[in-house]
């Protein structure tokens, strides 16, 4: 949205020519619900904001400069007006409004890419005789767009309600940003070798299967998927027991899938800073380091998470103590305490940037 020269390879900066471009413009009008009619300068002026602020919003949403092409619509003007209005009303600071634009742009860009690359592409196969994929795409988008839009808003409201509930339960203002969480990384072993051995389509299917399985398991057992990185997923949970259960479930599920390579998981517990849906801090770094040193098909946890599991009664302090408790309970004619997990201390070792740590091997009891 820069008033300078247009980027040569930016589609919005090039006037359409030919049948394919005409279909692309029809699709754009259908999706945006408006005609191109504004240059960036005109859009900013109509929205009542400076070109500089409009450009910052545009870049934050993930879009390239379009020079002075008449490529913007009434919807772009309305979006600028809304964001600027939130700033003027004092509901958002300008940096926060930029963050809103950036986080929304990044999230929806990935969603849109997935839907076009996988979803829409799959629906246009096989092609109808005499029709191109782009010609088939138009009626499909026309039918699907209202339903997908409604579903997107529904999921967003559901996620917003869940996130708001977590913040309200945080207890104080500090915990709303810096909270004590359990953070876990799950990493496919030998992924680099797989990239050299598998065809691109096979590799894509493997990654999609891994991410889908991990996302479903994390959600089903009360965790939150923070992000996926191809061969790695990052998740968080409010309590140590939930994070431990998810880590073991991931190992068990992947081990039962012959198409999947081995998995290793590292989990740490402590203060975490949250920003734009991501998590940062020493606890996150420690979980990542534990993952890199974990044995295949195993879960390593840090001392803080091990201590939390014993405090909540999810794991015994030691197997010897558990045996003593069981013997004492038996003498009293009572049931022995039941623990979900077992913890085995591993050798202390130096971890780059974090000093010496003592990992614990997490397993199921019984």
Automatic annotation (TrEMBL):
Transmembrane segments: none annotated. Pfam families: Guanylate_cyc. Residues 182-291 form the Guanylate cyclase domain. GO terms for biological process: cAMP biosynthetic process; intracellular signal transduction. One of its GO terms (molecular function) is adenylate cyclase activity. Belongs to the adenylyl cyclase class-3 family. PANTHER family: ADENYLATE CYCLASE, TERMINAL-DIFFERENTIATION SPECIFIC-RELATED (PTHR43081), PH-SENSITIVE ADENYLATE CYCLASE RV1264 (PTHR43081:SF19). This is Adenylate/guanylate cyclase domain-containing protein. It comes from Streptomyces palmae. The lineage of its organism: Bacteria, Bacillati, Actinomycetota, Actinomycetes, Kitasatosporales.
């Amino acid at each position: 949205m820069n008033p300078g020269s247009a980027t040569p390879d930016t589609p919005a900066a090039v006037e359409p020519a030919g049948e394919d471009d005409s279909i692309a413009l029809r699709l754009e009008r259908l999706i945006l619900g408006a005609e191109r009619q504004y240059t960036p300068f005109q859009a900013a002026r109509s929205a009542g904001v400076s070109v500089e602020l409009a450009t910052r919003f545009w870049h934050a949403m993930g879009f390239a400069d379009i020079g002075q092409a008449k490529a913007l619509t009434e919807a772009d003007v309305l979006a600028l007006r809304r964001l600027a209005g939130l700033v003027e009303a004092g509901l958002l600071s300008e940096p926060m409004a930029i963050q809103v634009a950036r986080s929304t742009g990044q999230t929806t860009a990935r969603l849109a890419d997935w839907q076009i690359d996988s979803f829409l592409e799959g629906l246009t196969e096989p092609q109808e005789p005499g029709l191109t994929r782009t010609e088939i795409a138009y009626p499909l988008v026309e039918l699907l767009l209202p339903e997908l839009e409604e579903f997107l808003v529904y999921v967003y409201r559901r996620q917003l309600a869940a996130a708001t509930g977590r913040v309200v339960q945080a207890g104080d203002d500090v915990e709303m940003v810096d909270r004590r969480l359990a953070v876990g990384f799950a990493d496919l072993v030998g992924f680099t070798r797989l990239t050299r051995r598998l065809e691109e389509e096979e590799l894509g299917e493997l990654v999609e299967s891994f991410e889908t399985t991990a996302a479903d398991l994390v959600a089903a057992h009360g965790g939150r998927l923070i992000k996926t990185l191809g061969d790695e997923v990052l998740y968080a949970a409010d309590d140590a027991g939930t994070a431990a259960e998810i880590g073991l479930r991931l190992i068990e599920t992947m081990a039962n899938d012959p198409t999947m390579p081995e998995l290793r998981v590292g989990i740490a517990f402590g203060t975490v800073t949250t920003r734009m849906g991501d998590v940062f801090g020493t606890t996150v770094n420690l979980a990542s380091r534990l993952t890199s040193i974990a044995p295949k098909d195993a879960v390593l946890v840090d001392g803080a998470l091990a201590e939390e599991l014993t405090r909540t009664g999810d794991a015994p302090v030691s197997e010897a103590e558990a045996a003593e408790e069981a013997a004492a309970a038996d003498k009293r004619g009572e049931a022995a305490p039941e623990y979900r997990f077992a913890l085995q201390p591993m050798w202390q070792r130096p971890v780059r940037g974090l000093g010496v740590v003592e990992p614990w091997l997490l397993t199921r009891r019984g």
